[in-house]
């Protein structure tokens, strides 16, 4: 297998030696991988190097916010439209066909701006990416998809079944610590080995397009995790290295969203070490600088991913029917996309317009700042919900001492604080599974209920603590009374010292040796508070 992997690498090098897209300055081999990466990193300027490190760790939100000012967005859109106008007609055939058929989709600002964000507001690169994306859709799906988004019904039944059951490419239902969506490539599995490459590309492009519908993902990019633990055979038996390279170029240079970080998880085997150089060769120079490798078992890779702000314990490392638990969230995602598309095409007048409007009231994956209303562990443990609970806890003293009018104002303060921090108040749709924003007044009422529930929990906790303290005092006095009669120990003012001395004297008595276990039991306060029957029995003996 290692020999086959090296042959595949040599095939990649020979087939791409004359390709103009190749920007590798020297041959990448297993022995000089680190040297090539260091050389390319040193060629970057100081600002570019810092920017790359910030993107890998998700600390580039402030840099992105500088370009998100309305006047800068409009100026970038104007320059991008000029670039498209100056493009030769031979290079924008798909765009002109779309404009001639129905311009409402491709001429919408929200369609253009996702390509600007994907190219970090470079108008020329954004124009080329948009036209390449339309050419890809025209080639792989047909001209009828140029006036609307690609949907599941544009895929073949076999492709939909493979996407749902195999789960070779998944969008995880949560974000990393910086708020980026996470995509995981797990290989094609046994069924996908014989699946046509064109169907794989169609399915992957559909998933990337769904990923680009999230506005925060457009701005921050997404995190791509490539799991090599299940896809070694897929890489080794590739008969056409150029087709494999074309797939990578298509994904990373034509999709309407960019990857801000790439993490590759390898098992520590000789085969995967040989494939590492081949995988790096398939990437562009920019992608290589944003790639990090993690070697070891799935558990070791999960721990390594945590250092980059990725909840590694939730990342799947297996596919197919044997990974039903890990496939559950992916199948729910596929069903959610189907429900969105069915709702979209109910607007028979203009489904292209509805797709942009749906983004504002249908939330597939809440942001980390969003506060969720509902039941379930996932909702209660969401970062935005936990942040709201901390805000309520800090204001609980004011709530307990406030009048009705003051409580009303206090709830509005909490609502405004969350909204001013780019958060939203969302509730889960019970029928479809997605989240929808709620009115501000509804959010205020929910916050008021959360205040009351938290106050009740605090009172109950205080009551339980008081009951536990009372029970402990009864036990102390009971032991003191029995100890004083048995060993004539004088009364002590410190209850803890009294209890300790009483039990020590109690354990030294031969006639009461069996009660030594009872004294050790008394030191476990949790068991004492929960076993009231045992306490009463001991008191009766006294």
From TrEMBL:
One term of GO molecular function: phosphatidylinositol bisphosphate binding
Entry-linked InterPro entries: DUF6824
Top-level taxon of origin: Eukaryota
Segments of this protein annotated with the region Disordered: 1-24
Coiled coil location: none
Transmembrane domains' residue ranges: none
Domain DUF6824: from-to ranges: 370-453
GO cellular component: membrane
Protein name from the UniProt record: DUF6824 domain-containing protein
Organism: Nitzschia inconspicua
């Amino acid at each position: 297998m290692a020999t086959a992997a090296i042959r595949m690498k040599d095939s990649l090098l020979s087939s791409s030696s004359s390709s103009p897209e190749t920007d590798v300055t020297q041959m990448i081999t297993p022995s000089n991988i680190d040297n090539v990466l260091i050389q390319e990193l040193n060629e970057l300027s100081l600002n570019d190097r810092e920017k790359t490190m910030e993107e890998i760790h998700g600390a580039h939100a402030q840099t992105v916010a500088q370009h998100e000012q309305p006047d800068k967005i409009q100026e970038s859109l104007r320059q991008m439209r000029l670039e498209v106008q100056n493009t030769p007609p031979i290079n924008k055939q798909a765009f002109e066909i779309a404009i001639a058929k129905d311009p409402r989709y491709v001429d919408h600002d929200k369609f253009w701006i996702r390509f600007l964000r994907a190219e970090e507001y470079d108008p020329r690169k954004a124009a080329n990416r948009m036209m390449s994306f339309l050419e890809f859709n025209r080639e792989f799906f047909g001209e009828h998809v140029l006036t609307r988004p690609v949907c599941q019904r544009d895929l073949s039944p076999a492709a939909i079944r493979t996407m749902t059951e195999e789960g070779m490419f998944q969008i995880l239902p949560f974000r990393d610590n910086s708020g980026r969506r996470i995509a995981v490539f797990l290989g094609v599995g046994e069924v996908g080995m014989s699946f046509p490459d064109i169907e794989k590309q169609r399915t992957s492009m559909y998933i990337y397009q769904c990923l680009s519908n999230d506005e925060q993902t457009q701005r921050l990019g997404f995190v791509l995790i490539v799991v090599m633990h299940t896809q070694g055979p897929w890489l080794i038996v590739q008969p056409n290295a150029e087709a494999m390279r074309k797939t990578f170029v298509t994904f990373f240079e034509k999709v309407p969203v960019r990857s801000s970080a790439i993490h590759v998880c390898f098992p520590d085997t000789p085969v995967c070490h040989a494939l590492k150089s081949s995988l790096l060769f398939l990437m562009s120079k920019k992608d290589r600088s944003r790639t990090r490798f993690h070697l070891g078992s799935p558990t070791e890779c999960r721990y390594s991913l945590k250092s980059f702000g990725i909840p590694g314990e939730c990342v799947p490392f297996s596919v197919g029917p044997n990974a039903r638990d890990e496939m559950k969230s992916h199948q729910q995602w596929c069903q959610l996309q189907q429900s969105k598309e069915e709702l979209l095409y109910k607007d028979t007048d203009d489904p292209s317009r509805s797709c942009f409007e749906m983004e504002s009231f249908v939330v597939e994956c809440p942001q980390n700042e969003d506060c969720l209303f509902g039941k379930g562990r996932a909702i209660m443990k969401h970062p935005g919900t936990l942040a709201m609970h901390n805000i309520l806890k800090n204001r609980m003293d004011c709530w307990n001492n406030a009048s009705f009018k003051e409580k009303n104002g206090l709830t509005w303060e909490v609502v405004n604080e969350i909204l001013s921090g780019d958060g939203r108040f969302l509730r889960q749709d019970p029928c479809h599974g997605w989240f929808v924003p709620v009115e501000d007044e509804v959010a205020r009422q929910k916050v008021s209920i959360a205040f009351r529930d938290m106050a009740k929990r605090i009172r109950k906790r205080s009551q339980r603590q008081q009951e536990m303290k009372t029970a402990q005092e009864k036990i102390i006095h009971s032991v003191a009374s029995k100890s004083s009669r048995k060993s004539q120990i004088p009364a002590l003012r410190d209850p803890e010292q009294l209890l300790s001395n009483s039990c020590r004297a109690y354990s030294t008595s031969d006639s009461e040796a069996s009660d030594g276990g009872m004294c050790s039991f008394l030191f476990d306060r949790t068991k004492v508070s929960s076993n009231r029957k045992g306490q009463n029995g001991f008191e009766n003996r006294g």
